[in-house]
Amino acid sequence: MFDLKYFFEQNYIDYNGRYKRINIEKHGIVRIDCRSEVFGGKEVKVLLGKINYVMKKYGKMCRELYLEFDRIRPKDKLSYIILECIVYELIQKYKKIIVRARGIDLSIQTSGIGYSPLCKYITRSISAEQYSRFFFSDLEKGHFRRTINKDDRLAVSILMTDVKSFLKYFNLDREDCGKIARIVSELADNACEHADSDCLVDIDVSLDYKKRSDPDNTYYSVNISVLNFSNIFLGDTLQEKIQKQGYRTASRYVTLAKAYERHKNFFDTEYTEEHFFMLSAFQDEISGRDNVTETGGTGLYEMIREVEKRADTHNCYVLSKDKIIRFWPEFLLCDSQGWVGFNEQSDFLKERPDKKSLTSSDTYLTGTGYNLSLIYRGND
User: Fold this and answer.
1) Short-list 80, 75, 118, 114, CA closest to 99
2) DSSP string, 26-48
3) Where are the beta strands (DSSP E) in the chain?
4) What's residue 299's pLDDT?
5) 84-124 pLDDT, tens digit each
6) How high does pLDDT run on average in the chain?
7) Is there a contact between 7 and 322 (Cβ–Cβ < 8 Å)?
8) Residue 289, class by beta-carbon neighbours within 10 Å (0-12 exposed, 13-18 middle, 19+ buried)?
């Protein structure tokens, strides 16, 4: 269902022989040292560099591959989900894989790793075969995971219903549960239709989030990752639509095309054309779909509106290729026509997005991944 070959290839770095110390031992054992204080985009890149080195140098001579961590401290939820994907790929294609770690450090936003197949595999609670099964689907009291097949027309609507059912375990407002389910379903639908890809949905709920401004009430951190692997990236279809003028005279798209011409003056190494179309994908009534012009899309825009109200400010972003859009609540305000500014001026059409909204990743993600941490107050 997932083929990460392209992902591995795009993140290959030789580092001028830096990995020559990775030797093959008796019985075809190779050990990869994964020491770092945190595990994020940079660490994913380094790990993939080492794995690619082993594959190219030792090939089938490597019969057992050990990934040896000091401690795993995920930078965010998407980081450990990507690590799970790497381990899954290795299990499928490269024989015996052993993952070791002296410990796993959790935060409110990464507490879901305690439910993950990776954690269970490290502690030897499950086998490699079980890992592959739990990687695609799992349901526990605090954890929901589902793989959505792009060819299953009913999968997204079923997903929405199942997410609502999962959230009933918690003391959340019914309307909030519905919003979360719609956001997750829209992100999955985009992956399946726009990127022509299956996608992985992972949700966990942390029960002990504390808000300094309201310490007497219970808050939940709803942590969401939606991930696909594809050679179609966020904003690609919209870029083609605008550049080929595939929107006829639809006023919303005409306005976006004019904004594109203005923003060309802003493009540089930090703010690129790809960033522009990624930002555009989150605008109200804008869609990359060929047959949508007059009404456009609203799903990603609804996500933006919810993030503006609920975001844990340091943990909401989308990654596609090596481009990151960070969702800072103060930059998600709209102008009178509903355009999200991504800047202090709340002016998307004429102003450059704020530097804090645009970052890059050491990891080149062949697809699109969302990392959302949304805070909700529990019912009294």
Assistant:
1) 118
2) GGGEEEEEE--SSBSHHHHHHHH
3) 29-34, 64-69, 96-101, 137-140, 143-148, 199-209, 219-229, 317-326, 358-377
4) 62
5) 999 999 998 876 999 999 889 888 788 889 999 999 999 99
6) 89
7) no
8) middle
pTM of the model: 0.93
Residue of 120, 118, 35, 126 lying closest to 81 (CA atoms): 118
Structure tokens at 188: 């999955």
Alpha-carbon Rg for the chain, nearest whole angstrom, is 21
- Of all residues in the chain, the percent with pLDDT exceeding 70 is 92
Report the C-alpha gap between 332 and 311 in whole angstroms. 11
Task: Using alpha carbons, list the distances in angstroms from residue 65 to 95, 201, 224, 316.
Answer: 8, 28, 30, 33
Q: Please name the residue that has the structure tokens 């407002």.
A: 173
CB 47 within 8 A of CB 39: no
Single-letter amino acid, residue 135: F
pLDDT of the residue at 295: 36
pLDDT of residue 40: 94
374 contacts 222 by C-beta, under 8 angstroms: yes
Could you give the CA distance from residue 207 to residue 138 in angstroms, rounded to a whole number? 19
